[in-house]
Specification:
By secondary structure, this protein is of the alpha/beta class. Helices cover 36% and strands 9% of the residues. It has a 5-stranded parallel beta sheet with strand order 2-3-1-4-5, with helices on both faces. The C terminus is likely disordered.
């Protein structure tokens, strides 16, 4: 009987957060000569509740890397993995030596961006204020993938779960603003973290890549963003403690994401953490 060939397992996972720059990050990592990212971007394997996760079978994901050499680093980006209750445990069973990448965004602005995406997709009919109200949040039980605007922003419990299944040295944390303002430095740090030999090309493409264009949806959410920032305040502080990221700008009451469209750097710099 011919021995069954061993299944090549993915080397790294970008697990979150949704609306935290993961699309651009995956696209840029794929430009490195030693790295191959899955196609399509989001495989949604380890959050798939239709699978029999008690069987012990190892998912064979090689079909998503048709032109990749076994000697390249394979990875995929499914942002819901960090939020989905059993996904990280399944990833750890699949490959306990995998490297994990987490890009975080200010949770209030993440919620607004998430809502805009769902509104443009027409999976959401409520206003942003209604969607984050008690009534709006109650819908998360029926459709956690869609209506988790607020719930996904409580990062600390999600990160604690990550740390329960992977050693700290196997996790790379950064902020979305780092990806935008210090792209080259973050990518260089990531290449070292992954152990990828070689260099990125000079042309890395646009800094921001959005799967759903929402720029035409203008919303005055000043009051809602302020309320959410207060709601997330303690969680942000715990997230900073767990990750080592400097998140002081997220809690000082003056944070405004509009600076991401400007060329001026924002202090403090280089706060990503591996």
């Amino acid at each position: 009987m011919t021995a069954r060939a061993a299944v090549k397992r993915l080397d790294f996972f970008i697990v979150g957060t949704q609306k935290g720059g993961t699309t651009a990050l995956s696209a840029k990592l794929a430009r490195h000569p030693a790295i191959c990212c899955a196609k399509p971007k989001e495989l949604h394997v380890f959050d798939d509740e239709r699978r029999d996760w008690t069987s012990g079978d190892i998912p064979d994901l090689s079909a998503h890397f048709p032109a990749a050499s076994d000697h390249r680093l394979w990875g995929e980006a499914t942002p819901i993995y960090m939020y989905w209750p059993q996904a990280i445990e399944r990833v750890a069973r699949y490959n306990p030596e995998a490297k994990i990448i987490v890009s975080l965004r200010h949770p209030a602005y993440r919620a607004l961006s998430h809502w805009k995406m769902e509104f443009v997709r027409r999976t959401e009919e409520l206003s942003f204020a209604e969607a984050i109200s008690e009534r709006g949040r109650a819908r998360v039980r029926a459709a956690p993938q869609v209506f988790s605007y607020v719930e996904r922003g409580f990062y600390a419990p999600q990160i604690a779960r990550l740390l329960a299944h992977f050693p700290r040295q196997s996790i790379f944390f950064c902020r979305m603003e780092d990806l935008y303002q210090e792209e080259a430095a973050v990518l260089q740090a990531l290449a070292g973290f992954l152990g990828a030999d070689g260099a990125f090309p000079d042309d890395l493409g646009p800094k921001r890549v959005v799967p759903v264009e929402t720029s035409g949806l203008a919303v005055d959410a000043t009051a809602e963003l302020s309320w959410l920032s207060s709601l997330f305040h303690d969680d942000i502080r715990e997230t900073a403690r767990l990750t080592g990221l400097n998140l002081g700008a997220w809690t000082d009451g003056t944070y405004d994401e509009t600076y991401l469209t400007q060329d001026l750097p924002m202090a403090p710099k280089r706060v990503f953490s591996a």
